[in-house]
Structure formats: structure tokens, C-alpha cells
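task queued by scheduler; priority normal; single chain, no ligands, no partner chains; default sampling; output format set to C-alpha cells
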Amino acid sequence: MPFNPLAALRRPGSVEGKVVLITGAARGIGAGLAERFAARGAKVALVGLEPEEQQAVADRIGPNAASWTADVTSWDDLEQATAGVVERFGGIDIVVANAGIATTGFARSIDVSAFEKVIEVDLLGVWRTFRVAMPHVLKREGYLLTVSSLAAITHAPGMANYAAAKAGVEALSNSMRAELAHLGVKVGVAHPTWIKTDLVDSADAHPVFGKLRAGMPGLLGKTYPLEVALDHLERGILRRARTIHVPRWVGALKLIRSFLPPVIELGGRFQGVPEADREALEDIARRGATEAAITGHGGRAATLRDSTR
């Protein structure tokens, strides 16, 4: 019997034969999801800026995976990659807009290009990915997932651009969910807390902001293994969830989010923000504004890409 993508998509929990496009798939959450869904019989399209690492992931998975190099902030890159995915696999059922970067720095002193690149990748990159892939997802009444963050709910010092972008991603998802519901397309948003990935490890190693992160109290500062995030995200995607909280307590914070900003402001005074502000200026003077801001391999690839054009 020939494969019917619409019939398969309506089987709860099945991704067999479906095409899953994942951005930022060279490592971490993106690579892990690609491997898990390929093991479930999906065809996975890996899209991102680190071609060698991404191709290594595709090679590990085998013939049901392929890699496309694309900058999610580039319409041309995304159009070419999406066309390649459709030509190779015949369509797109699920899109996981996972590509994201972060910087470290306070708004008054951070390198302005690095600050804005986070918003461009983490917010506009999601919008552009969805817009380009949407016609194909509509044909299969598929599923779109944005990867937001705990940062969309708790707006910590030193993360102004990241928090703004991730809050925007949540809002984008909520609006699009209402827009696409009558067309059979589901839209979800995921809110992971700190997950042990290259991005978080790099931030923790920062000479100034690593100390701020270490001072976060209780669950707000806890780092979870990558497998925890993959477990929650895999289950959520399989059921085409509207929200995925990693872990579940993140969802409870949404109920009290209006009370969080003053608490974070007060906590910042006692957790070293004034001292970190001075140290950040010293770090910039020593290493340069761009180098002091960059975190993670993906962030380096995206931030330095513009300077090499």
C-alpha cells in the first residue's frame, strides 16, 4: 500500500514516513531530535550553519537523513534548503525551529552587532523558517514547533536580547496557532530551562557571566541533562502539543510571571550584578566587545558570518 502522509500524520504518536525539518541540527537538541525521529521511521532534514558537524549527524543516522547548509536569517538560503528538502523527500510534515544563539553581556556595554544578531537568529530566523516551509506543511496539515526558553518567562540580567527574542517567539507561536487552526496545522512552543548543551556550557565558562549563572537560586539555576529535554520534546512533538515545558515546573512559572520581574531585579542586587557590570567592562577592554559576547559554536558561526562576507 502506498504511503499516505495525511493518514500517517493523523495517527497519534506516529512519525513513520513523515518528513521532519529541524534547524540548528548540528549538535545538542537539534541533533538529538533528528536521531530520535529517524529511529521512529521519519525522514529528517538537517538545516543549519555548521556543515561538517551537521553532515556527521546525517551520516550517523543513515539514508533517512540529509543535511542542508543554510543561515536561518537568509531568505535565499532557506528557500534553497526547503526546495532541496522537498525535492529529496517529497514534502514537509513537521518543522522544528530550533536554531538559536545567545550572547553574554549587559545592554549598555555589549557589542551591538552581537546583541542584534541574537534577535535576528532567534526571532526573525524562526519566522523566516516557518514562512518558507509553511506552504508545504499546509499541504500535509502538519505541525510547527518553535523552541522558546525559560528566558521568555524569567528575564534575567545579562540576557536582554535572548529574553526578548524568546518572548517574541512565544507570542509568534500563539498568534500563528490561532491563524492556522482552521487549516489543520498545529503550532507548538517549547520552553526548555537550562539544558547541558554547547551553548550553556560556553556561557557557564564565561569569566563574568558564568558566575552570575552559578548564583541563580534553586531550580532557576539548575542544569538538566540533554536527555531530559529530548524526552519532553519528543513526547510533545509526537502529540503535536501546543506547549512543551522542560521540565514541567517551567509551566507553573507562567501562572506567576507578572510577579517575577521585581523579584529578579531585587535578586540581581544581591547576586553580583553591580560587580559583574564592572567586570564586563574590564573583559571587553581585555578581549574586545565581540569576543566577550560570543557563546557556543553556533553563536560563533552566526555572529562571525557577517564579518566574513
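post-processing summary
- The chain has one domain: 5-308.
- Residues 153 and 256 are 9 Å apart (CA to CA).
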